[in-house]
Amino acid sequence: MMKDELRQSKVLVIGCGRMGGAIIKGWCNGLVAPDNITIVDPTPFPDLVSGVKQVSGPEEITDDFFDVVMLAVKPQIFPKIMSLYAPFISEKTLILSIMAGVETQAIEAMTDSKQAVIRVMPNTPALVGAGVMVCFANAVATPQNEALCDTLFSPLGSVHWVHDESDMHAVTAISGSGPAYLFYFAECMVAAAKNTLKDEVLAAKLAKETLYGAALLMQQEAREPMALRQEVTSPNGTTQAALEVLMSDGVLDALANNALQAASKRSLELSALEPA
Ligand SMILES: NC(=O)C1=CN([C@@H]2O[C@H](COP(=O)(O)OP(=O)(O)OC[C@H]3O[C@@H](n4cnc5c(N)ncnc54)[C@H](O)[C@@H]3O)[C@@H](O)[C@H]2O)C=CC1
Ligand SMILES: O=C(O)[C@@H]1CCC=N1
After folding, report:
1. What pLDDT band is residue 3 in, cutting at 50, 70 and 90?
2. Ligand 2 atom with minimal separation from the 123 CA
3. With left for phi above 0 and alpha for psi between -120 and 50, is residue 177 left, alpha or beta?
4. Which domains does the chain have, with CATH numbers?
5. What is the pLDDT of residue 274?
Protein backbone atom coordinates (compact mmCIF):
# COMPACT_ATOMS: atom_id res chain seq x y z
CA MET A 1 0.00 0.00 0.00
CA MET A 2 1.39 3.37 -1.00
CA LYS A 3 1.61 6.19 1.52
CA ASP A 4 -1.24 8.14 -0.19
CA GLU A 5 -3.44 5.08 0.02
CA LEU A 6 -2.47 4.57 3.66
CA ARG A 7 -3.66 8.08 4.53
CA GLN A 8 -7.13 7.03 3.37
CA SER A 9 -7.09 3.71 5.27
CA LYS A 10 -9.62 3.13 8.02
CA VAL A 11 -7.92 2.15 11.26
CA LEU A 12 -9.56 0.75 14.40
CA VAL A 13 -7.55 0.70 17.61
CA ILE A 14 -8.94 -1.44 20.42
CA GLY A 15 -7.51 -0.16 23.71
CA CYS A 16 -5.73 3.17 23.80
CA GLY A 17 -3.52 3.41 26.84
CA ARG A 18 0.15 4.25 27.18
CA MET A 19 1.39 2.12 24.29
CA GLY A 20 -1.59 2.37 21.94
CA GLY A 21 -1.67 6.13 22.51
CA ALA A 22 2.03 6.49 21.67
CA ILE A 23 1.59 4.56 18.43
CA ILE A 24 -1.47 6.54 17.30
CA LYS A 25 0.38 9.78 17.97
CA GLY A 26 3.15 8.60 15.64
CA TRP A 27 0.66 7.56 12.95
CA CYS A 28 -1.14 10.91 13.06
CA ASN A 29 2.12 12.57 12.14
CA GLY A 30 1.31 12.49 8.43
CA LEU A 31 0.89 8.73 7.97
CA VAL A 32 -2.81 8.11 8.62
CA ALA A 33 -5.53 10.78 8.47
CA PRO A 34 -6.76 11.28 12.08
CA ASP A 35 -10.37 11.33 10.78
CA ASN A 36 -9.89 7.75 9.63
CA ILE A 37 -8.85 6.48 13.07
CA THR A 38 -11.40 5.13 15.55
CA ILE A 39 -10.36 4.22 19.08
CA VAL A 40 -12.42 1.98 21.32
CA ASP A 41 -11.62 2.50 24.97
CA PRO A 42 -13.94 2.93 27.96
CA THR A 43 -11.42 5.36 29.47
CA PRO A 44 -11.08 8.66 27.56
CA PHE A 45 -7.53 9.18 26.27
CA PRO A 46 -6.26 12.49 27.69
CA ASP A 47 -4.11 13.61 24.77
CA LEU A 48 -6.07 12.60 21.67
CA VAL A 49 -4.98 14.05 18.32
CA SER A 50 -7.77 16.24 16.95
CA GLY A 51 -9.97 14.36 14.47
CA VAL A 52 -9.47 10.91 15.96
CA LYS A 53 -12.81 9.38 17.01
CA GLN A 54 -13.03 7.78 20.42
CA VAL A 55 -15.91 5.48 21.36
CA SER A 56 -16.35 3.47 24.52
CA GLY A 57 -17.59 0.19 23.07
CA PRO A 58 -18.13 -1.70 19.78
CA GLU A 59 -21.82 -0.71 19.63
CA GLU A 60 -20.75 2.94 19.06
CA ILE A 61 -18.50 2.23 16.07
CA THR A 62 -19.91 3.98 12.99
CA ASP A 63 -17.79 2.41 10.21
CA ASP A 64 -18.45 -1.17 9.22
CA PHE A 65 -15.06 -2.02 7.71
CA PHE A 66 -11.48 -1.32 8.72
CA ASP A 67 -8.30 -1.87 6.70
CA VAL A 68 -6.24 -2.18 9.87
CA VAL A 69 -7.34 -3.24 13.35
CA MET A 70 -4.79 -2.86 16.13
CA LEU A 71 -5.24 -4.75 19.39
CA ALA A 72 -3.69 -2.76 22.22
CA VAL A 73 -5.59 -3.93 25.28
CA LYS A 74 -3.98 -5.91 28.09
CA PRO A 75 -3.58 -9.61 27.26
CA GLN A 76 -5.93 -10.49 30.13
CA ILE A 77 -8.73 -8.39 28.55
CA PHE A 78 -8.38 -9.83 25.05
CA PRO A 79 -10.20 -13.18 25.60
CA LYS A 80 -13.19 -11.28 27.00
CA ILE A 81 -13.57 -8.94 24.02
CA MET A 82 -12.29 -10.81 20.97
CA SER A 83 -15.70 -11.98 19.73
CA LEU A 84 -17.15 -8.42 19.84
CA TYR A 85 -15.03 -7.14 16.95
CA ALA A 86 -15.55 -9.87 14.33
CA PRO A 87 -18.24 -7.78 12.53
CA PHE A 88 -15.67 -5.05 11.77
CA ILE A 89 -13.07 -7.39 10.29
CA SER A 90 -13.10 -8.68 6.73
CA GLU A 91 -10.69 -10.97 4.88
CA LYS A 92 -8.92 -7.84 3.67
CA THR A 93 -8.32 -6.48 7.18
CA LEU A 94 -4.82 -6.64 8.58
CA ILE A 95 -4.89 -7.30 12.32
CA LEU A 96 -1.95 -5.90 14.25
CA SER A 97 -1.45 -6.91 17.87
CA ILE A 98 0.93 -5.36 20.34
CA MET A 99 -0.26 -7.57 23.20
CA ALA A 100 2.44 -9.41 25.12
CA GLY A 101 2.14 -13.17 24.97
CA VAL A 102 -1.08 -13.51 22.94
CA GLU A 103 -0.31 -15.78 19.98
CA THR A 104 -1.42 -15.30 16.38
CA GLN A 105 -3.44 -18.53 16.65
CA ALA A 106 -5.65 -16.97 19.36
CA ILE A 107 -6.02 -13.78 17.33
CA GLU A 108 -6.88 -15.68 14.14
CA ALA A 109 -9.77 -17.22 16.09
CA MET A 110 -11.44 -13.77 16.26
CA THR A 111 -13.01 -14.47 12.84
CA ASP A 112 -13.97 -17.45 10.71
CA SER A 113 -11.90 -16.23 7.75
CA LYS A 114 -8.21 -16.74 7.15
CA GLN A 115 -6.91 -13.58 8.69
CA ALA A 116 -3.63 -11.76 8.19
CA VAL A 117 -2.21 -11.15 11.66
CA ILE A 118 1.05 -9.44 12.54
CA ARG A 119 2.26 -9.26 16.11
CA VAL A 120 4.38 -6.23 16.90
CA MET A 121 6.25 -5.87 20.17
CA PRO A 122 6.98 -2.14 20.56
CA ASN A 123 8.47 -0.25 23.49
CA THR A 124 7.75 3.13 25.04
CA PRO A 125 10.70 5.06 23.51
CA ALA A 126 8.45 4.95 20.41
CA LEU A 127 6.99 8.10 21.97
CA VAL A 128 10.17 9.95 20.95
CA GLY A 129 10.79 8.08 17.70
CA ALA A 130 13.42 5.85 19.32
CA GLY A 131 11.32 2.74 19.84
CA VAL A 132 12.24 -0.82 18.99
CA MET A 133 9.52 -2.78 17.21
CA VAL A 134 9.84 -6.52 16.63
CA CYS A 135 7.29 -8.13 14.32
CA PHE A 136 6.08 -11.63 13.55
CA ALA A 137 3.67 -12.31 10.66
CA ASN A 138 1.34 -15.32 10.49
CA ALA A 139 1.22 -17.53 7.39
CA VAL A 140 -1.73 -15.63 5.91
CA ALA A 141 0.00 -12.22 5.98
CA THR A 142 1.28 -11.18 2.56
CA PRO A 143 4.49 -9.30 1.71
CA GLN A 144 2.19 -6.27 1.19
CA ASN A 145 0.87 -6.65 4.75
CA GLU A 146 4.46 -6.81 6.03
CA ALA A 147 5.42 -3.74 3.98
CA LEU A 148 2.41 -1.88 5.42
CA CYS A 149 3.51 -2.82 8.93
CA ASP A 150 7.05 -1.56 8.17
CA THR A 151 5.58 1.71 6.88
CA LEU A 152 3.40 2.17 9.96
CA PHE A 153 6.10 1.48 12.53
CA SER A 154 9.31 2.84 10.93
CA PRO A 155 8.54 6.44 11.98
CA LEU A 156 8.43 5.23 15.60
CA GLY A 157 11.92 3.71 15.65
CA SER A 158 13.67 0.61 14.34
CA VAL A 159 11.65 -2.32 13.00
CA HIS A 160 12.89 -5.91 13.10
CA TRP A 161 11.29 -9.22 12.12
CA VAL A 162 11.45 -12.70 13.62
CA HIS A 163 10.24 -15.78 11.79
CA ASP A 164 9.66 -18.10 14.73
CA GLU A 165 6.76 -16.95 16.88
CA SER A 166 8.25 -18.44 20.04
CA ASP A 167 11.05 -15.84 19.75
CA MET A 168 8.46 -13.21 20.71
CA HIS A 169 8.77 -14.27 24.37
CA ALA A 170 12.48 -13.42 24.44
CA VAL A 171 11.89 -10.28 22.38
CA THR A 172 9.29 -9.08 24.88
CA ALA A 173 11.74 -9.69 27.72
CA ILE A 174 14.55 -7.81 25.96
CA SER A 175 13.10 -4.84 24.10
CA GLY A 176 9.44 -4.74 25.17
CA SER A 177 10.15 -4.59 28.89
CA GLY A 178 13.74 -3.39 28.49
CA PRO A 179 13.17 0.35 28.94
CA ALA A 180 11.92 -0.36 32.48
CA TYR A 181 15.24 -1.99 33.39
CA LEU A 182 17.16 1.14 32.41
CA PHE A 183 14.64 3.35 34.21
CA TYR A 184 15.11 1.26 37.37
CA PHE A 185 18.89 1.58 37.05
CA ALA A 186 18.36 5.32 36.62
CA GLU A 187 16.23 5.41 39.80
CA CYS A 188 19.03 3.66 41.72
CA MET A 189 21.70 5.92 40.24
CA VAL A 190 19.69 9.08 40.99
CA ALA A 191 19.15 7.96 44.61
CA ALA A 192 22.85 7.14 44.98
CA ALA A 193 23.85 10.45 43.35
CA LYS A 194 21.70 12.33 45.86
CA ASN A 195 23.58 10.58 48.67
CA THR A 196 26.90 11.68 47.19
CA LEU A 197 26.27 15.27 46.08
CA LYS A 198 24.73 17.93 48.34
CA ASP A 199 22.85 19.65 45.47
CA GLU A 200 20.18 16.97 44.91
CA VAL A 201 18.71 18.63 41.81
CA LEU A 202 22.09 18.71 40.14
CA ALA A 203 22.78 15.14 41.31
CA ALA A 204 19.61 13.83 39.60
CA LYS A 205 20.37 15.83 36.45
CA LEU A 206 23.94 14.49 36.24
CA ALA A 207 22.78 10.89 36.63
CA LYS A 208 20.02 11.15 33.97
CA GLU A 209 22.10 13.14 31.47
CA THR A 210 24.94 10.66 31.85
CA LEU A 211 22.70 7.67 31.09
CA TYR A 212 21.27 9.50 28.08
CA GLY A 213 24.73 10.42 26.75
CA ALA A 214 26.07 6.91 27.29
CA ALA A 215 23.05 5.36 25.49
CA LEU A 216 23.48 7.76 22.57
CA LEU A 217 27.20 7.01 22.35
CA MET A 218 26.49 3.28 22.39
CA GLN A 219 23.94 3.69 19.60
CA GLN A 220 26.18 5.84 17.40
CA GLU A 221 29.45 3.95 17.92
CA ALA A 222 30.23 0.70 16.17
CA ARG A 223 32.20 -0.49 19.20
CA GLU A 224 30.67 -2.90 21.69
CA PRO A 225 29.57 -1.75 25.17
CA MET A 226 32.56 -3.51 26.73
CA ALA A 227 35.02 -1.44 24.66
CA LEU A 228 33.17 1.75 25.58
CA ARG A 229 33.28 0.77 29.25
CA GLN A 230 37.01 0.05 29.06
CA GLU A 231 37.59 3.49 27.57
CA VAL A 232 36.15 5.10 30.71
CA THR A 233 38.10 2.87 33.08
CA SER A 234 41.60 4.12 33.96
CA PRO A 235 43.81 1.52 35.65
CA ASN A 236 43.38 1.90 39.39
CA GLY A 237 41.18 4.94 38.89
CA THR A 238 37.71 5.93 40.10
CA THR A 239 35.72 3.88 37.56
CA GLN A 240 37.64 0.73 38.42
CA ALA A 241 36.82 1.30 42.09
CA ALA A 242 33.11 1.55 41.28
CA LEU A 243 33.08 -1.36 38.82
CA GLU A 244 34.79 -3.65 41.31
CA VAL A 245 31.68 -3.17 43.45
CA LEU A 246 29.16 -3.44 40.57
CA MET A 247 30.85 -6.48 39.02
CA SER A 248 31.67 -8.38 42.19
CA ASP A 249 30.80 -12.10 42.03
CA GLY A 250 28.92 -11.58 38.74
CA VAL A 251 25.84 -10.63 40.76
CA LEU A 252 24.55 -8.19 38.13
CA ASP A 253 25.10 -10.75 35.32
CA ALA A 254 23.07 -13.29 37.23
CA LEU A 255 20.35 -10.75 38.02
CA ALA A 256 20.09 -9.70 34.35
CA ASN A 257 19.79 -13.35 33.31
CA ASN A 258 17.16 -14.11 35.93
CA ALA A 259 15.19 -10.97 35.11
CA LEU A 260 15.03 -11.72 31.37
CA GLN A 261 14.08 -15.32 32.05
CA ALA A 262 11.31 -14.21 34.42
CA ALA A 263 9.90 -11.82 31.78
CA SER A 264 10.09 -14.47 29.08
CA LYS A 265 8.36 -17.01 31.34
CA ARG A 266 5.58 -14.51 32.09
CA SER A 267 5.07 -13.93 28.36
CA LEU A 268 4.69 -17.70 27.92
CA GLU A 269 2.13 -17.78 30.75
CA LEU A 270 0.16 -14.94 29.09
CA SER A 271 0.04 -17.00 25.88
CA ALA A 272 -1.90 -19.68 27.75
CA LEU A 273 -4.87 -17.42 28.63
CA GLU A 274 -8.10 -19.07 27.53
CA PRO A 275 -10.96 -17.30 25.70
CA ALA A 276 -13.75 -16.39 28.15
N1 LIG B 1 3.50 -0.35 28.11
C2 LIG B 1 4.48 -0.91 27.41
O3 LIG B 1 5.67 -0.60 27.58
C4 LIG B 1 4.17 -1.98 26.40
C5 LIG B 1 2.92 -2.57 26.33
N6 LIG B 1 2.68 -3.55 25.40
C7 LIG B 1 1.36 -4.18 25.31
O8 LIG B 1 0.44 -3.17 24.99
C9 LIG B 1 -0.82 -3.50 25.52
C10 LIG B 1 -1.37 -2.29 26.27
O11 LIG B 1 -0.47 -1.98 27.31
P12 LIG B 1 -0.43 -0.52 27.94
O13 LIG B 1 -0.71 0.48 26.89
O14 LIG B 1 0.79 -0.46 28.73
O15 LIG B 1 -1.67 -0.63 28.93
P16 LIG B 1 -2.70 0.48 29.37
O17 LIG B 1 -3.40 -0.04 30.59
O18 LIG B 1 -2.05 1.81 29.44
O19 LIG B 1 -3.73 0.48 28.14
C20 LIG B 1 -4.74 -0.47 27.97
C21 LIG B 1 -6.00 0.28 27.58
O22 LIG B 1 -7.02 -0.67 27.35
C23 LIG B 1 -8.24 -0.07 27.76
N24 LIG B 1 -9.28 -1.07 27.93
C25 LIG B 1 -9.58 -1.80 29.03
N26 LIG B 1 -10.66 -2.57 28.79
C27 LIG B 1 -11.02 -2.34 27.51
C28 LIG B 1 -12.06 -2.83 26.67
N29 LIG B 1 -12.93 -3.74 27.12
N30 LIG B 1 -12.14 -2.38 25.41
C31 LIG B 1 -11.27 -1.46 24.94
N32 LIG B 1 -10.26 -0.94 25.69
C33 LIG B 1 -10.14 -1.38 26.95
C34 LIG B 1 -7.88 0.65 29.05
O35 LIG B 1 -8.83 1.63 29.39
C36 LIG B 1 -6.51 1.23 28.69
O37 LIG B 1 -6.61 2.54 28.21
C38 LIG B 1 -0.65 -4.71 26.42
O39 LIG B 1 -1.17 -5.84 25.77
C40 LIG B 1 0.86 -4.82 26.58
O41 LIG B 1 1.26 -6.16 26.67
C42 LIG B 1 3.63 -3.94 24.50
C43 LIG B 1 4.86 -3.38 24.53
C44 LIG B 1 5.25 -2.39 25.48
O1 LIG C 1 4.87 -5.42 31.13
C2 LIG C 1 4.24 -5.85 30.17
O3 LIG C 1 3.61 -6.92 30.24
C4 LIG C 1 4.24 -5.07 28.87
C5 LIG C 1 4.81 -5.88 27.74
C6 LIG C 1 6.16 -5.31 27.48
C7 LIG C 1 6.18 -4.08 28.26
N8 LIG C 1 5.11 -3.95 28.97
Report:
1. confident
2. 7
3. alpha
4. 3-176 (3.40.50.720), 178-269 (1.10.3730.10)
5. 66
